[in-house]
Amino acid sequence: MTDLTPAETKAIAALQRLAKTWPKSLWLFANGSTGLSVLKKKNGQRVTTDTGGMDQEYVVATVKIENDGGDW
User: Fold this and answer.
1) In this structure, what is the dihedral angle of CA atoms 18, 23, 25, 26, given to the nearest 10 degrees?
2) How far is the first Cα of the chain from the last one, in angstroms, to the nearest whole number?
């Protein structure tokens, strides 16, 4: 296990608190290079393109947090 700095521990705790109150009307899409896109759902469902990608018309914000959307 990697040792975390107090700032890192605090950031993780803040993210966990956010997850508890995150509106069900929004979802996140990991855009590796540009950050996390926040998208609005339509009728409670994620809106995607015909090919399964995110529909950019529903992007309401981008948060510049480094991420990777790949599976392990």
Assistant:
1) -10
2) 18
Q: How far is CA 57 from CA 1, 8, 27, 38, 46, in A?
A: 40, 33, 14, 11, 12
Cut 0.85: pTM above it: no
pLDDT digit string (tens) for 3-48?
999 999 999 999 999 999 999 999 999 987 789 999 999 999 999 9
Q: E-assigned strands of 1-72?
A: 26-31, 35-40, 59-63
CA distances (Å), origin 3, targets 6, 7, 8, 9, 30: 10, 12, 10, 10, 26
Residue type, 34: T
Sorted by sequence, the CB contacts under 8 Å of residue 35 that are 6+ apart come out as 62, 63, 64, 65, 66, 67
